Amino acid sequence: MTTDAVADITAGRTAVGIEFGSTRIKAVLIGSDHAPLAVGTHDWENQLVDRLWTYSLEAVWAGVQQSVAALAEDVRRRHGVELTTVGALGVSAMMHGYLALDADGELLAPFRTWRNTNTGRAAERLSAEFGCNIPHRWSVAHLYQAVLDGEEHVGRIAHLTTLAGYVHWRLTGEQVLGVGDASGMFPIDSATGGYDATMLARFDQLAAEAGADLHLAGLLPAVAVAGQPAGTLTEAGAALLDPSGRVRPGAPLCPPEGDAGTGMVATNSVAPRTGNVSAGTSIFAMVVLERALGAVHRELDLVTTPAGDPVAMVHCNNGASELDAWAGLFGQFARALGAEADSARVFETLFTAALDGAGDGGGMLAYNYLSGEPITGLEEGRPLFLRSPDSPLDLGSFMRTQLYSSLATLRIGMDVLQKAEGVRLDRMFAHGGLFKTEGVAQRYLAAAIDTPVAVGDVAAEGGAWGIAVLAAFATRRTPEQGLADYLETAVFAAASLRTHRPDPADVAGFDAFMERYVAGLPVERAAVEHVRVGQQRAAHPQITPVAPSEEPA
How much of the chain is helix, strand and coil, in % rounded to 5? Predict the structure, then answer.
């Protein structure tokens, strides 16, 4: 127990950040020095229902209550006091998606997450009409696709928001969204800091042409930048967080943000020529721009930092999930041999083995596509591993291939940004589970984007810590202080980073792998076309099927 921590907690000189990630809900309590004091987590998973990825709202509230309860227990265990009040609060969640509510605040359709790629027609039409890239994931693409599909609920929509915006609304009663998250719902006008008025009007026209009477500006949340107040925790909101009643209402909340924005904060990557790569279920890069891009690229989303500065985002739906699956398989094999090894040791062993693999993956190929991948034009995914007959099958090269695969689609998007647009980067910061084994994925990312890559303990708690910092910023900054200055002087002044510069041999090896990867994409497309999800194994037309117990070994 530390006296300063106890004083901060009892006096309310704290901030709590809650982030809804793809596989985990995390709550982090920080003190007056922004250092984490306690953490609470809850694991959850999306569900594929009627061919759409979703989470139930019951899972949202059960998860946040369990993570807050775990946070309170961690406070008691570490510091010997009860968590009853906090100085500030912030909510973050996975960006994009579709949460449509009626006038009573009831959900009109199951929550559709960023992972869904059923919005191809809408994204293509809106991109052409707006003159900017509208990705499959964006809320406006989901809405327009629902219009095109004639979904009955469209005419009853009163509010449209993201997961972070929904939770914030239930906690505060305020329909508001941080500009970073809002920029993943609808394009932002850099001159006004709000939604682009011309595009809003055009959307209403397109909806009318398709038979829907919509006024989109009235459906979207208000937009706020980092540092602005965004409501306070109500009695009803406090009860949602903590049904036991220990957490008291009244805490101010910062604007809710998306996980991309909180990742930028957590890595001090909000200034031009900086960026970060976040690797989890998805993998994405955020690069803060010095100037406007010269052309529209379907591989690049234009979003903003939480302060409203322009950002190019390379978002790949598929990140480390397939790596997790392979690690799970190797863990099962180890246990079958009688060797007990926890998942952390399995990952470290496999990642370390990759360092001895062939520089180009040894002729192997892997596609980590559990879901569709818009950057490569795939609406569905099929995880795939293949090799040529003369490729040696050794553990090191296999694992290097799997790691390369997790970065390959990101590389395609970064090539557009770095080569076609000439964007320069001084440094990329990497965070997420992929980079926990020191010097492996960090090294391969540096090779993939030919840029120095830094990692460090500053992002250990990730986006939940990032939104807690944004909550602290909203209550502690001086009136004239911007977010970049606050991070540099008040949060990261003593941060320690480990930077890996790209090795020319690694760069050449990754380039060779990418040639093979791009050339093999038709194989992945064929797998999507010919292997259906949930398809039962069919009998060969010329072979009589046998019972499973009679199948040859």
Answer: 40, 20, 40
Check which CATH number belongs to the domain holding 422 and give it. Answer: 3.30.420.40
| Tokens representing residue 469 in the block | 């910092």
| Whole-angstrom distance, CA of residue 255 vs CA of residue 125 | 31
CB atoms within 10 A of CB 242: 19
Beta bridge partners of 308: none
Q: Does some domain include residue 2?
A: no
Q: Per the structure block, which two tokens stand in for 490?
A: 């008040």
For residue 429, being part of any structural domain is answered with yes
Q: Do 355 and 371 share a structural domain?
A: yes
Cα separation, 69 vs 391, in Å, equals: 51
Please count the structural domains in the chain: 2
β strands within 384-510, DSSP E: 384-387, 427-432, 453-456, 497-500
CA dihedral 145, 151, 157, 159 (to 10 degrees): -40
Maximum mean pLDDT: which of 376-390, 419-433, 508-522:
508-522
Q: Which domain holds residue 368?
A: 321-405+505-530
pLDDT(536) > 90 = no
What is residue 457's predicted lDDT score, i.e. its pLDDT? 66
286 and 350 in a single domain? The answer is no
Cβ–Cβ < 8 Å for 215, 146: no
- pLDDT of 120 strictly over 60: yes
In whole angstroms, give the CA distance from residue 459 to residue 476: 21
> Hunting for tokens 């690694």 — which residue is that?
506
Per-residue pLDDT tens digits for 318-368: 999 999 999 999 999 999 999 988 899 999 999 999 999 999 999 999 999
Would 477 be classed as within a structural domain? yes
Closest CA to 100 of 220, 257, 202: 220
Is there a single domain that holds both residue 444 and residue 517?
A: no
Give backbone dihedrals phi and psi of 41, rounded to 5 degrees, phi first: -135, 160
The reply to whether the predicted model has a pTM over 0.85 is no
